[in-house]
Amino acid sequence: MIPRIERVDDIAAHAAELFQETMLESVRERDTFAVALAGGTTPLPLYRRLAARADLPWDRARVFIGDERFVPADHADSNFGSIRSALLDHVPVDPDRVHPWPIQAEPEASADAYAAVLDQELAGAPFDLVLLGLGTDGHTAGIFPGTGTVHSHAATVASRPDGAEHPRLSMTPRRLSESRVAAFLVSGDDKRDALAGLLAEDGDREALPARAIAALERLVVITDLDVRAG
Ligand code: 6PG
């Protein structure tokens, strides 16, 4: 599935519009909004922008984290820690409907525990929105080239990518693709090659895991880079 490119100057502003649009539609149609937030730094300006939108129906939101580093929430490298301080501490979400990854004795135990959370909270229902980043090596969420996780049928996996500072916990492309809308947020010249690979007509998903992401209704790339599809 080739994503639609939305080339914009202000990724945070454009992504905030998409977030609001999908949130309001989901709440209107289903009285709920299940969102999987992306880690990394690219989404942080979006989260800070959304932190000023206490007017949105946050009480209907169910918040999940697409992937996590195997570190406690108060560790500087924690995706949940960053998302909490940029967004969740500033909006009226119900804490019982915010689901960080449980950091247990082993990464594999954490992945199994989060799969149980997803099953309990969603019972296989799709997300309404999944936000994703893109690594310079073509990884997305915590699915890295060469880890053998890109084709997993599980909902979550743990892996130890070469060169990664921490073991990684991630929803799989299969589970992340079970979303009405999925949006990659991609910024920075260092992502140019990875983005071209993501948008190419053909390519190997193991080598560029972001290519394994699909969506039920809409798959977009929101970027400030000038790239061509195909
Ligand atoms: C993470 C993310 C990861 C991220 C990409 C891009 O835990 O770091 O899940 O997949 O989205 O590495 O990161 P930046 O947005 O920081 O470039």
Structure description:
The chain is of the alpha/beta class and 230 residues long. It is 27% helix and 20% strand. The protein contains six helices and ten strands; from the N terminus they run βαβαββαβαβββαβαβ. Helix 1 packs across helix 2. The longest helix is centred in the N-terminal third of the chain and has 20 residues. The chain is globular. The termini are close together. The structure holds 6-phosphogluconic acid (6PG). 6-phosphogluconic acid (6PG) binds next to loops.
The beta-strand count equals: 10
Contiguous helical run count: 6
Give me the secondary-structure category: alpha/beta
Strand order of the largest sheet: 1-10-9-6-2-3-5
Describe what is shown at a glance.
With 230 residues, the protein is an alpha/beta fold. Helix content is 27%, strand content 20%.
